[in-house]
Specification:
homodimer; alpha/beta; two-stranded parallel ribbon; 32% helix; globular
């Protein structure tokens, strides 16, 4: 997988190979990826099952688009990239313009500069 | 304004200079533009006032993101780029996977290949 600035990451599992029991948390990065994978049933299934298992989920920038598709935003307090602010609101979430928003096990941030804030809260929930 | 493939278009008016009485219809193109302008109050005001004036509005690809921000999709039948399908649904619309969907004065399409279908319906509504 090639990032926006050229950084390469090797995908070690296909979505179908994911066993949620092997993971303690989930991070949904942003960029163009969320739009490309949010309609894949296995993707939203992984997200929903991680959520139901009480495991922390972090989403940043466009990452919350996947949370919309997984139907997880109703009544939740979240933040996201400002360009999809009205989408998370339409999905029933309360949007807050903050570096990081934590609602139960859901950790959301707006832009890459917010990453330190997001990771601090995400790691706190993993403990 | 420079398009995705390098084509240049001269913007002749700023949003603040738009007088909706001078226009018979509105087309909302897709791409990255909608995310950049959907949070500008004047943009959603133009769209809402055109709609209230009974003038046809066409939106393609990511264009419907602006319709979400303008709160115009509740109960409407629409289509859009598949990557924002769940956003138009969350906004209360019924999503249809068709070249073009017409609901009252709202004309929507999915991708550039649908443009001939969209324009035919849009022009029909202008007559």
């Amino acid at each position: 997988v090639k990032g926006k600035k050229g950084y390469m990451v090797r995908a070690e599992l296909s979505f179908d190979e994911v066993d949620i029991d092997e993971f303690v948390g989930l991070i949904l990065p942003g960029g163009k990826g969320p739009e490309h994978i949010r309609n894949i049933p296995k993707v939203t299934e992984i997200v929903r099952r991680m959520h139901e298992a009480g495991k922390p989920i972090a989403a940043i920038c466009h990452g919350p688009q996947i949370l919309i598709s997984a139907n997880l935003l109703g009544g939740k307090r979240v933040t996201c990239y400002h360009g999809i602010r009205d989408d998370v609101k339409a999905a029933g979430a309360e949007y807050l313009d903050m570096e990081v928003v934590v609602d139960d096990k859901l950790v959301t941030s707006r832009v890459p500069d917010d990453l330190p804030y997001m990771m601090k809260e995400f790691i706190r929930l993993l403990k």
